[in-house]
Amino acid sequence: MNVGDDVTxxxxxxxxxxxDFGSRHGDHxxxxxxxxxxxxxxxxxxxxxxxxxxxxxxxLWNAFTGMTYHASCTFEGWVDFVCPRGTSYVTNSRFIAxxxxxxxxxxxxxxxxxxxxxxxxxxxxxxxFPLGRNNRDGQFTLLDCAFSGAMADQPIFRPSAPxxxxxxxxxxxxxxxxxxxxxxxxxxxxxxxxxxxxxxEITPEWTFCGQWDPEGTMxxxxxxAAVPRPHxxxxxxxxxxxxxxxxxxxxxxxxxxFFGPADEPGRGTRLDAGTTxxxxxxxxxxxxxxxxxxxxxxxxxxxxxxxxFTTAAxxxxxxxxxxxxxxxxQGWGTGFARRMGAGxxxxxxxxxxxxxxxxxxxxxxxxxxxxxxxxxxxxxxxxDAPGKGxxxxxxxxxxxxxxxxxxxxxxxDAGTRPVLLTPLTRRTVDEAGCVRSDLGFYAxxxxxxxxxxxxxxxxxxxxxxxxxxTMSPAEVAALGVPKEDGTLDRTHLSPAGSALFGAxxxxxxxxxxxxxxAAFRTARRTCPQx
Length: 530
Hints:
Layout: E1 8-13, E2 16-19, H1 21-25, E3 34-36, E4 41-46, E5 49-52, E6 58-60, E7 67-71, E8 74-77, E9 87-91, E10 94-97, E11 104-105, E12 116-119, E13 122-125, E14 132-133, E15 140-143, E16 146-147, E17 171-174, E18 177-178, H2 204-207, H3 214-217, E19 226-229, E20 234-237, E21 243-247, E22 254-261, E23 268-272, E24 277-279, E25 288-297, E26 300-302, E27 306-311, E28 316-322, H4 333-338, E29 344-348, H5 356-361, H6 364-370, E30 375-379, H7 399-413, E31 417-421, H8 440-453, E32 457-458, H9 460-469, H10 473-478, E33 481-482, E34 488-489, H11 495-501
Helix pairs in contact: 7-8
């Protein structure tokens, strides 16, 4: 099957594509079953078999803007038989290899964020088949995959000369297993990937950097509900609940959903034809749940597959590390904690008067990591600034950045995901009502560390400036508290300020890329940007 160079949004489902040239002629060289190039992108294979008697079975080769998604498929072939260029996401599929060179291959040389993600899939093949290679820059991420004992003890490798690669080797694993025993080279190492994503975060939308959500936009082409989210077999689902989602069945007039612990089938819940999601509510920790969606149509019921997931063994834990503007008493900590639902906890380790330097030297950071939170939000800057004394001050261009980098690295080493926040602005305004921040250099330093260390960023400095720039003097005053001399404290927060800045609106940021986002409110005046 040859796909035209300008084809987009092509979905191939419930079919088999096979190139049998090799079996007819005894030749196992490159034999495409499906191939594309040029600008072809957003190509989906769903419940399909794509087979060839030679190499390069699935060759979807738009290296610049190519995006491909495959679910519940079987792929079979010889060398590099699944070999995407650009970005590709494969889930719940089977790979069958017949060569001693490599099964999978990736060309991600045009953009560091291009990646090849394979999730909840199985690799089988002839004895001694190697897993993969990349002759060009690429990036592999394999999650919860199963490997046959026939797979060779050979890591994914780079056969080209070292100087031909721009980036370091990037091969990441989580939760992978081999029938005849695990091997050290596919041990869990997601913390070493850019932004240290958790397995739950590596969705198709994340994989494609927010440019495409194939599971959320897929049309109803199959006669049954398909593509479950959470994915079948997912683990570590937060106990605060899950949103069960599926792709609609073609011709369905309604659905019946069954959900409950795996050993206690739940009662059916009837849903209308336009409903393709259902929220569970809080879940028990360390429990396996099963669910099924039956499609109801004019010709009767089409029974769905039974899917399952397992919840985390403990509630999801978030820690806060920062200065007084993060504390519960004077900062946004209380507002943040009130936004958390059942099944998640928040431990606020922020301390008034601390800088990155003093927080580290006094042992507070060590105590944060000792509690092994899942995520730590880090915000400093107010006490790192000049005028706070040598025991606290840091230089925005050197020591401040070094301290933040140390926190990021140590959090990752401890198995905790760090998230950096630029410092909340002081609410000092000029005659026009526009903020004049004295923390701009420190905010810039946080952004720089986020980019250098590839760590998620919430640009609270910019968000808070944009919020204050929309407000009247009375509204700004309501965010602060009075000082002992009766003047307004424009740094610390009242309960109203904590509620506002503890829950900034999500602005649709491209996943995996730290960027400033829209303000909390619609602007009423125009202020120059900081």
